[in-house]
């Protein structure tokens, strides 16, 4: 055992006492630190009108990898990275909401607002989905899936609130949902971000509730899978087969993979040979 004389023992007590005080002070500082440390981050980096003023298909690709921000209130700001989109080309597109609108000669709805407007629509009268208007009249890009970056627990809570509104069940937060699947699908994404019909028509270039910021990196064409959209009705005709869905190759938050088109992309990019074998450098 170590032996200390009186002088050493006194010094040791002083050291322990000071260490204890410093630890308590540090603990107080940590407790006083607000939960939301990203209070103003991103407000100066939100995209302007020029970003959204693009043809629908081009915008659908450009949105991949960008950061979608939803500010519920001053204490809750949710952030996620867009990984999957679908382009709806307006009145000519039989799968688009604006297709039937055009047949009666009316131009109504948020898809006809200026590029960069939020379009919140109801699917089957149950789910809400979020789209963004593009350059063409009546055209928009559906945000189909995203990767949670900040606020995953609040996203779980928002999904639980949505389910409670649509059933008689009590509020139950499902903690078993994996983080990368929280926003995997247009209905899930809208629910997780607390998107409501009140956001329909919101200008993403000026809004303090919903906007998009530049992502950490550009997504190369060789990483963008272009394939047919999902869940379209038979009434959409040949539009069912048009490759208007875009997603980041290999990302785990994508709602549904299309292995056929993934293979075609990898062959075109020189990753795979024609017979599907991996090229080794």
From TrEMBL:
Enzyme Commission number(s) of this protein: 3.2.2.21
UniProt cross-references to Gene3D superfamilies, sorted A to Z: Methylpurine-DNA glycosylase (MPG)
Pfam families assigned: Pur_DNA_glyco (PF02245)
Biological processes annotated in GO: base-excision repair
Keywords attached to this entry: DNA damage, DNA repair, Hydrolase
Molecular function GO terms recorded: alkylbase DNA N-glycosylase activity; DNA binding
Catalyzed reactions: Hydrolysis of alkylated DNA, releasing 3-methyladenine, 3-methylguanine, 7-methylguanine and 7-methyladenine
SUPFAM superfamilies (UniProt xref): FMT C-terminal domain-like (SSF50486)
The organism's place on the tree of life at top rank: Eukaryota
Subunit-structure text: Binds MBD1. Binds SSBP1.
Free-text function comment from the UniProt entry: Hydrolysis of the deoxyribose N-glycosidic bond to excise 3-methyladenine, and 7-methylguanine from the damaged DNA polymer formed by alkylation lesions.
Family named by the database record: Belongs to the DNA glycosylase MPG family.
Protein name, UniProt field: DNA-3-methyladenine glycosylase
């Amino acid at each position: 055992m170590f032996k200390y004389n009186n002088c050493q023992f006194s010094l040791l007590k002083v050291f322990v006492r000071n260490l204890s005080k410093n630890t308590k002070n540090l603990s107080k500082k940590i407790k006083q630190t607000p939960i939301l440390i990203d209070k103003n981050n991103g407000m100066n980096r939100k995209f302007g009108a020029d970003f959204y003023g693009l043809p629908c298909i081009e915008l659908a690709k450009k949105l991949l990898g960008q950061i979608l921000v939803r500010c519920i209130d001053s204490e809750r700001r949710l952030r996620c990275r867009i990984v999957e989109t679908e382009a709806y080309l307006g009145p000519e597109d039989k799968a688009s909401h604006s297709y039937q609108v055009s047949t009666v000669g009316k131009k109504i709805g948020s898809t006809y607002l200026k590029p960069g407007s939020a379009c919140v629509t109801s699917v089957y009268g149950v789910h809400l989905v979020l789209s963004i208007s593009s350059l063409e009249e009546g055209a928009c890009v559906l945000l189909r899936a995203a990767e949670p970056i900040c606020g995953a627990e609040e996203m779980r809570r928002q999904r639980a609130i949505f389910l409670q509104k649509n059933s008689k069940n009590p509020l139950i937060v499902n903690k078993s949902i994996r983080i990368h699947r929280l926003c995997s699908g247009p209905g899930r994404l809208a629910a997780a971000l607390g998107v409501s019909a009140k956001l329909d028509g919101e200008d993403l270039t000026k809004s303090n509730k919903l906007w998009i910021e530049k992502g950490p990196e550009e997504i190369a064409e060789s990483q963008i899978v272009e394939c047919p959209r999902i869940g379209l009705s038979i009434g959409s005709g040949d539009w069912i087969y048009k490759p208007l869905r875009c997603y980041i190759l290999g990302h785990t938050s994508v709602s549904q993979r299309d292995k056929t088109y993934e293979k075609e992309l990898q062959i075109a990019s020189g990753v795979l040979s024609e017979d599907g074998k991996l090229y080794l450098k």
